[in-house]
Design a protein that fits this description.
The chain is of the alpha/beta class. It is 46% helix and 13% strand.
Length: 296
């Protein structure tokens, strides 16, 4: 396995749908090209923002293949392949490997709430069976259980193909622990746009971002500046867009970001149930901020 190295803005892509509910690959191509042309260093396909719980295994595999072909080396392509079943996780990850992705992002098993021992066994089994860079994904607000920082560090020490973590607990102390104790070559990415600049100043490697879907060039610049330690310049960008970053989470992700992309003419505003369109007052506030920032 080749050495994995990735810093900066990693956009967690939405999955565009047509009005009949099928995947809109023309819109998906627009999104991929948009990011490649605006400084995004990597994209996550079929992650949380991609409504992956409503996608089938075959749809996931098709999106992986399509993204790899369209990107054609312009950015790193990361596939979301998590499951609450270890057997299924290995299977989905192998599909991604077969599609030619550069890495996989694997969420901690959800709903069944494994212990730390079970969490370690889940990821160790995946690492033993799959020879691809694996990025752990800790988001306890969605999964109901956590990949504890000490477990993540132990996995990183024990398996060379576990190369990073997306830490989306919102707990800055987790970020600090991971950065301080990580082995060489292990990447720490914020999973929360609002604290991503601060995390980079502490030594993180970037952000797996929702907001990067909307202002990719400026978000990428904020990541580069903060990774380089230029707090003043990074802070200016953060404060310019902090209200928008908050509004992108006023309802469950990816509802607001899809509404914003639709307003920008990038795709149709179509969701798969149980997700639905925004409440009118929230959408009004989102559109007003997009206009204020001259994004629409």
């Amino acid at each position: 396995m080749k050495r994995f190295s990735l810093q900066g803005s990693i956009a967690a892509l939405v999955t565009p749908f047509k009005t009949d509910g099928s995947i809109d690959f023309k819109a998906f191509d627009r999104l991929l090209d948009y990011h490649a042309e605006n400084g995004t260093t990597g994209v996550v396909v079929c992650g949380t923002t991609g409504e992956t719980p409503t996608l089938t295994e075959s749809e996931d595999a098709e999106m992986f293949r399509h993204a790899v072909e369209r990107v054609n080396g312009r950015m790193v392509v990361i596939a979301g392949t998590g499951s609450n079943s270890t057997h299924s996780c290995v299977k989905y990850t192998q599909n991604a490997v077969d599609a030619g992705v550069d890495a996989v992002l694997v969420v901690g098993p959800y709903y069944n709430k494994p212990t730390s021992k079970g969490m370690y066994l889940h990821f160790s089994e995946l690492a033993k069976q799959i020879n691809v860079p694996i990025i752990l994904y800790n988001v306890p607000g969605r999964t109901g259980s956590a990949i504890k920082p000490d477990v993540a560090i132990q996995l990183a020490k024990d398996f060379s193909n576990i190369v990073g973590i997306k830490e989306a607990s919102g707990n800055i102390h987790n970020i600090e622990y991971l950065i301080k104790n990580r082995p060489e070559g292990f990447h720490v990415y914020s999973g929360d746009d609002g604290i991503s600049m601060l995390c980079n100043l502490l030594g993180a490697d970037g952000c797996v971002s929702v907001a990067a879907n909307i202002f990719p060039r400026e978000f990428s610049r904020m990541m580069q500046l903060s990774i380089a330690g230029d707090a003043k310049a990074a802070r200016e960008i953060h404060y310019r867009y902090c209200k928008l970053m908050d509004l992108l989470f006023v309802e469950s992700n990816p509802i607001p970001v899809k509404a914003a992309l639709a307003a920008m003419g990038m795709m149709e505003e179509v969701y798969r149930a149980p997700l639905c369109s925004m409440e009118e007052n929230n959408k009004k506030a989102l559109l007003a901020e997009l206009k204020a920032l001259k994004l629409i």
